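Project outcomes to date are best conveyed with an example. Our students and postdoctoral researchers have been running inverse folding experiments weekly, and each run begins with a structure described purely in C-alpha cells. The record below, which covers 192 residues, was selected by the lab manager from last quarter's runs and is presented without edits.
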C-alpha cells in the first residue's frame, strides 16, 4: 500500500488509527513486562547504560515539547511541527530503549525510606499514569498533524488535544527525570 493511501485512510479515520497504534504500544510494553516479548538478556552494565540513555532522550524530548509549545504560541507553525515531530521521534527511541531495558534486563528499586520513599513512589506513580494516558492523546495529535494541512487543522480538535498532550507529556517526562536523578544519583538502588 502506498504512503498516500495510508495517509488518506489515516486522515479519514484518525481515531481508529490512534486506537490501533495505542493498542500496539500498550501490547509491546505489556510484552516486555511479562517476558513474552522475545528479547535477549542484557547485563547489569547495559541496564545502567540504557537507563542513562533513556534520561538523555527524555530530557531532549521535554525540551522539544517545550520548544514546540513556544513556537505555536508565536505562530511559527513549521517550527512547531518540527519540534513536536522531533519529540515524537525521541519518544519512539525511548520506547525501544525502555522495552529493551525492561524486557531484557531488570527494573531498579530505590533504597530510600520514609518521606523520601513516599515522594519518590508518588512521583513515579503520576509519571507512569500520565505516560499511559498520554499515549492515545499524543498519537491523536500526531495523526491529525500528519494528515491535515495547518489550515485544515484549525477545523479539527488538534489544538485542544495538543494542549492536553503537551501538558501531560511534559509533566510525565519531568517527573521521570526527577525520579531518574533520585534513583541513580542521589539514593542507592537494587534490582527488582
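After processing, the design step wrote out the following sequence:
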Amino acid at each position: 500500500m502506498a504512503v498516500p493511501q495510508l495517509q488518506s485512510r489515516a486522515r479519514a479515520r484518525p481515531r481508529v488509527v490512534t486506537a490501533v497504534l495505542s493498542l500496539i504500544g500498550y501490547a509491546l510494553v505489556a510484552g516486555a513486562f511479562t517476558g513474552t516479548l522475545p528479547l535477549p538478556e542484557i547485563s547489569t552494565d547495559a541496564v545502567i547504560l540504557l537507563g542513562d540513555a533513556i534520561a538523555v532522550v527524555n530530557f531532549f524530548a521535554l525540551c522539544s515539547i517545550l520548544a514546540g509549545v513556544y513556537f505555536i504560541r508565536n505562530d511559527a507553525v513549521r517550527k512547531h511541527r518540527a519540534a513536536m515531530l522531533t519529540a515524537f521521534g525521541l519518544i519512539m527511541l525511548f520506547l525501544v530503549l525502555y522495552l529493551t531495558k525492561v524486557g531484557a534486563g531488570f527494573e531498579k528499586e530505590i533504597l530510600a525510606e520514609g518521606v523520601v520513599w513516599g515522594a519518590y513512589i508518588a512521583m513515579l506513580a503520576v509519571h507512569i499514569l500520565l505516560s499511559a494516558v498520554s499515549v492515545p492523546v499524543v498519537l491523536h495529535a500526531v495523526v491529525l498533524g500528519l494528515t491535515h494541512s495547518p489550515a485544515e487543522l484549525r477545523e479539527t480538535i488538534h489544538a485542544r488535544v495538543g494542549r492536553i498532550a503537551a501538558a501531560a507529556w511534559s509533566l510525565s517526562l519531568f517527573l521521570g527525570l526527577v525520579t531518574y536523578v533520585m534513583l541513580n544519583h542521589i539514593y542507592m538502588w537494587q534490582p527488582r
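The first helix runs from residue 3 to 12. The radius of gyration is 18 Å. The training component of this project remains on track.
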